[in-house]
Amino acid sequence: MSARKLAMRTFRGLQLGFIALVTAHICLGWGYSRWWNFLPLLLAYVLITVVNRWGGGAPDHPRFAREPVEVDPPVTGRWSALNSPADRTPSHGTHAYGQTYAIDIVAEPEPGARPAFSPLWPLARRPDAFPAFGVPLRAAADATVVRVSDGQRDHLSRTSLPGLLYLMLVEGSVREMGGVHRITGNHLVLDLGGGTYAAYAHVRRGSFTVHEGDRVRAGQVLARCGNSGNSSEPHLHFQLMDGPDPDTARGVPFTWSGVGVPRGGEVFDVPESAPIAPA
């Protein structure tokens, strides 16, 4: 087991330790100050801060610097970017899970087709209310499938203020303790060769058309966009990494052929391509 993997497991163990101490303190009436219960939580976040700086690698550090890897866009049609490495790195505020250069994209087939954020009502929407749900996800290059993780449900959206607060303050923390597969939801990883791997997260349950060990061609449909894992609405979370396990990998910068790296809020179009038969 790598040092980073051990550190991530220790981080989750400390979080669980905090919950156990608080529960025991309430149930057993221990006499010491309740503030001591927060010690495991403090240690957990000191640990994760150190791990993110050490394990992620500063993008401008010569040891970790890499030229962007050019790959094909993983979708076709009209989309817009949300969290993007074109705006900042790390794009999601952390190097954890190899997501230094990750990008989130949502389908925008036409203006107004995607439900807007609502302050209070509706609290949540079904996944199929969003145009991204069920859209085919395609191989970004000729590759080998090295990980397929399926079985998690596609939950309701978190696109109201109460829903977003629930995601950030409650659900996100619980998923963090459950490990990377609870964060990414249903996901797959492709080995592109040359020490580069592509990860697709929040995939629709039961939509995979490939299995681990399969060879795929660029443009081949792999699965469909979903809303599993730590997701506020159906979207694709895409990233390149230097290893197959997001728990231990470092992020690798990418650029999409014909598109580049869209900035947050930028709308981009990818032309429909001819269907790709399985390799």
TrEMBL record:
Residue ranges crossing the lipid bilayer per the database entry: 12-32
Coiled coil stretches, renumbered: none
Domain of life: Bacteria
Keywords: Membrane, Transmembrane, Transmembrane helix
Keyword Membrane: yes
Domain M23ase beta-sheet core: 171-242
Gene3D superfamilies: Glucose Permease (Domain IIA) (2.70.70.10)
SUPFAM superfamilies: Duplicated hybrid motif
Protein name: M23 family metallopeptidase
Species the sequence originates in: Streptomyces hirsutus
